[in-house]
From TrEMBL:
Its EC number is 3.6.4.12. Belongs to the RuvB family. Keywords: Activator, ATP-binding, Chromatin regulator, DNA damage, DNA repair, Helicase, Hydrolase, Nucleotide-binding, Nucleus, Transcription, Transcription regulation. GO terms for molecular function: ATP binding; ATP hydrolysis activity; DNA helicase activity. This is RuvB-like helicase. The keyword Transport does not apply. It comes from Absidia glauca. It is found in: Nucleus. One of its GO terms (cellular component) is Ino80 complex. One of its GO terms (biological process) is DNA repair. DNA helicase participates in several chromatin remodeling complexes, including the SWR1 and the INO80 complexes. InterPro entries: AAA+_ATPase, P-loop_NTPase, RuvB-like, RuvB-like_C, RuvBL1/2_DNA/RNA_bd_dom, TIP49_P-loop.
Amino acid sequence: MERVGTHSHIRGLGLDDALEPRATSQGMVGQLKARKAAGVIVKMISAGKIAGRAVLIAGPPSTGKTAIAMGMAQGLGTDVPFTMLAASEIFSLEMSKTEALTQAFRRSIGVRIKEESEIIEGEVVEIQVDRSMTGGSKTGKLTVKTTDMETIYDLGNKMIDSLNKEKVMAGDVITIDKASGRITRLGRSFTRARDYDAMGSDVKFVQCPEGELQKRKEVVHTVSLHEIDVINSRSQGFLALFSGDTGEIKAEVRDQINTKVSEWREEGKAEIVPGVVFIDEVHMLDIECFSFLNRALEDDMAPVVIMATNRGITNIRGTKYKSPHGIPVDLLDRLLIISTKPYEEKEINQILTIRCQEEDVEMTDEAKDLLTKIGVETSLRYSIHLITAANLVARKRKAPAVDVQDIKRVYMLFLDEKRSVQAMKDYQDQYMFNENEGSMAVDTAMEM
Ligand SMILES: Nc1ncnc2c1ncn2[C@@H]1O[C@H](COP(=O)(O)OP(=O)(O)OP(=O)(O)O)[C@@H](O)[C@H]1O
Ligand SMILES: [Mg+2]
């Protein structure tokens, strides 16, 4: 089953090849300037041009900041590491704030390791196994060919077992890694396609390889620095990767790994792929984290840091000072700032249409117009949330589509922020711990 998440309709930034934003594309609507700016950054990251830079996406609530970051992640592709965290996540009891940030940073630096291996690649002509009389050891011969040559290899016990395990038959095209002896079946040779009628539809046909049987092949893996850290930091390091229980990693381990990776880079065995750390709700970081960021961005193996916030001028957490977005000015000075703006009615309507499709909800045009109006009056997010609820109500009355009456009903059932505030004011006396001036609770507390 596919789950529908808040941003599951976002499939990219919706830009064309010249990085110009299309009005509506890949699930993205409007917010053209911000999308274009985000696209330029994605382009620079993919080209490996920037590292250690930081970007701030700032704007009012529900104007698509998180959505744009998700679009950027998709634009980067799978090879560039992208780590996403909410600023509040780093305040955990298990590790210090700076350790949590360091881990997020190192998760976002990929190391592309190149390995050259010798392989034998060809089509199997014949496998011949001789069992000894005692049954213990097996010997055999494997005949493999390319379009240009044919060779017979002697087989030992181990190779015979792995040929059996892979169910290799004459007519298969295989590769054998010479160092490890690992056998991989690439598929069946086209020339043998007619020999077997009763083959499953999942059989893959490949060409018989050309040229030499023995080849050198380059294999590339990308792992993150964090993964290398974890594997090297504990005896059961590899398992810790799966359980997520990595704990704090010693500085010495990281130093050793950095040295090793630099060596690999010099020898041409590895390349660094700087990725992205996305810190959402960045105003939740405190002054220590901010100064850590200042410093960490200057490291020569730093990723690109993207942050998002909806705060205006507010307190910097952990100090009594105020600053724009709750971010100290020395850090702000290092940021490229992308700003998002509130949506217009038409854009809200389009986003709601996309969300209805994503959630598989049928809605009449009148209902959508009303929902759009609600979106303009309250917030985009509130109106998006009403889609599912209205759909449930419509289904309950067995209607084929969500209509105006369903929207009205859920609008009455669920308060938006403004009406909730009004309700607070109207009934303030009945809530606990109410600190509003002139309320009963405060008055009695003062008298006591
Ligand atoms: N331009 C857009 N195109 C399509 N969907 C959008 C767009 N902008 C926002 N959305 C959708 O609207 C909802 C709210 O947007 P989002 O969560 O990105 O807001 P935000 O700016 O991060 O808000 P906050 O400051 O409260 O975190 C999400 O479901 C998001 O996917
Ligand atoms: Mg957000």
